[in-house]
Amino acid sequence: MSDTVPHCESIQAHEDIIKKVMEELPDEELLYDLAELFKVFGDSTRIKILYLLFESEMCVCDIAQLLNMTVSAISHQLRVLKQSQLVRFRREGKTVFYSLADEHVRSILAQGMDHVCE
Predict the structure, then answer these.
(1) What 3-state DSSP class applies to 11?
(2) SS3 of residue 73 by DSSP
(3) Torsion angle, alpha carbons of 13, 15, 19, 21, to 10
(4) How many whole angstroms separate alpha carbon 71 and alpha carbon 62?
(5) What is the pTM of this model?
(6) One digit per residue, pLDDT tens: the chain, 118 residues?
(7) Any alpha helices (H) in 1-118, and if so which ranges?
(8) 3-state DSSP call for residue 19?
(9) Could you give the angle at which helices 103-117 and 44-55 cross, rounded to 10 degrees?
(10) Cβ(96)–Cβ(89) under 8 Å?
(11) Per-residue burial over 77-107, b = 16 or more CB atoms within 10 Å of its CB, e = otherwise
(12) How far is CA 13 from CA 25, 46, 53, in A?
């Protein structure tokens, strides 16, 4: 058995399939935004931060201690996660607490973990 990618048997495209898919295909800009979102998930430090926040709301110092990193390094990664709308924050006095932005983020993490554990 060959390891090559299968080819179309016919030379003619399936116009009905192409038309249906083109009607459903999101706008190019939206696909770009989705690709950018997945790039944010492509960093293991950010994934670790998201998983910590999956478990509990935390301040920068807590996250830094758990990951054995500097507060500055964690703050930088949290800024990226905030800009991508994956985390939110709230102030309590002088302390800022971070959490996952919404259930979508929780679902993405859970489904991703399910996928890699299969």
Answers:
(1) coil
(2) helix
(3) -40
(4) 9
(5) 0.83
(6) 456 666 666 678 888 999 898 889 999 999 999 999 999 999 999 999 999 999 999 999 999 999 999 999 999 999 999 999 999 999 999 999 999 999 999 999 999 999 999 9
(7) 15-24, 28-40, 44-55, 60-67, 71-83, 103-117
(8) helix
(9) 110
(10) yes
(11) bbebbeebebbbeeeeeeeebbebbeeebee
(12) 18, 42, 47
Residues in the chain: 118
The three-state DSSP-derived secondary structure of 81-108 is HHHCCCEEEEEECCEEEEEECCHHHHHH
pLDDT score, position 12: 80
Buried b (16+ CB within 10 A) or exposed e, 6-37: eeeeeeeeeeeeeeeeeeeeeeeeeeeeeeee
What distance in Å separates the CA atoms of residue 95 and residue 108, rounded to the nearest whole number?
28
| Backbone torsions φ then ψ of 90, nearest 5 degrees | -145, 150
For residue 92, give the nearest of 70, 59, 67 by alpha carbon: 59
* CA-wise closest residue to 78 among 55, 105, 65, 97: 97
